[in-house]
Amino acid sequence: DNIYRATEEIGGYEREVKSVTSDYTLTGGDSVLLVDATSAAVTVSVQSASNLRRKRYTVVKTDSSANAVTIDPAGSETINGASTKALSSQWDAVSFVSDGSNWYEV
Question: Is 59 in a helix, a strand, or coil?
């Protein structure tokens, strides 16, 4: 997998910035994910909200292709009540945070 890692200092703390071109599962150490879906649609899987209370992620679709980037929370968890969140246009982005049970856009 083509993963690029960079660290960005924001407001006195560091956020992990990662670039991917294929399906990926967010980890507790991830923060910002830049997704290039030029070759194919990409699914970004999210670990259980119960394990990541107060964790915040940002996902950005960086390419202009028609391929979607789909964010898929674990099991029956949701993002704002929906089972998945799709990013379909270049520069579409979403930031979301865990309350310990589900994920919410912020």
Answer: strand
pTM: 0.87
Closest of 45, 44, 46, 55 to residue 99, by C-alpha: 55
Contact present, 5 and 16 (Cβ < 8 Å): yes
CB atoms within 10 A of CB 99: 11
CA-to-CA distance for 81 and 44, rounded, in angstroms? 17
Of all residues in the chain, the percent with pLDDT exceeding 70 is: 86
The backbone torsions φ and ψ at residue 58, rounded to the nearest 5 degrees and listed phi first, read -130, 130
Q: What is the CA radius of gyration of the chain?
A: 13
What size, in residues, is the chain? 106
Which residues 6+ apart lie within 8 Å of 10 measured at CB? Answer: none
- Which helix (H) or strand (E) segment holds residue 86: the answer is strand 85-87
